[in-house]
Design a protein that fits this description.
The protein is built from one helix and ten strands, in the order ββββββββββα. With 144 residues, the protein is mostly beta strands. Strands 1, 4, 5, 6, 7, 8, 9 and 10 form an eight-stranded antiparallel beta sheet that branches. Strands 2-3 form a two-stranded antiparallel sheet. Strand 2 and strand 3 form a beta hairpin. Bound molecules: dTDP-4-keto-6-deoxyglucose. DTDP-4-keto-6-deoxyglucose binds next to strand 4, strand 5 and strand 6.
């Protein structure tokens, strides 16, 4: 995957160190506060994405920092900072995308046994989610 040129606010690219010259498989490494720019308090992964029509995400966070990876297969990530929108095909396990706060994100188009891995800066807290798009637009415009 070519390194994506991120055009929305509160996002960016995280590149992991990897060794892919082992005959027995590849090794990929991330470290808190080094390649991953925060302390990792939680991780989760999403698998069993066989329904190609599924749409996940469709929300923003108020404070949470996350990095999203596709460790297998590929999917489409849509980002929206309330003003700029961008869609990225995520298909490189060594490149993660920062999902910073106040960034509406949607994952779709899951393909080839897609497995998504997310590293998060904090524990799960439903009050940190903005799950309604109109509320998101109001929230980001208040912040300006
Ligand atoms: C995000 C995107 C990329 C928990 O109880 N604990 C957790 O740590 C998480 C992540 C979820 N949940 C519960 C909350 C819901 O009842 O699991 C259920 C499904 O969560 P949600 O619909 O938010 O799943 P996604 O895939 O739409 O979103 C997830 C993360 O929730 C979210 O923070 O940014 O992945």
């Amino acid at each position: 995957m070519k390194t994506p040129n991120i055009r929305v606010k509160n996002s960016g690219v995280v590149k992991l160190k990897f060794y892919n010259d082992f005959p027995d498989g590849n090794l990929v490494i991330g470290e808190s506060k080094k390649s991953v720019p925060f302390d990792i308090k939680r991780f989760y992964f999403i698998n069993n994405l066989f329904n190609k029509k599924s749409n996940r995400g469709k929300h923003a966070h108020k404070k949470l920092e996350q990095i999203i990876f596709c460790v297998n297969g590929h999917f489409s990530l849509s980002l929206d900072d309330g003003k700029n929108k961008q869609r990225i095909l995520i298909n490189d396990p060594y490149i993660g995308i920062r999902l910073g706060p106040k960034l509406w994100h949607t994952m779709s188009g899951f393909f080839r046994d897609c497995v998504i891995l997310v590293l998060a800066s904090d524990y799960y807290d439903e009050t940190d989610y903005i799950r309604n798009y109109d509320d998101f637009i109001k929230y980001v415009s208040k912040m300006k």
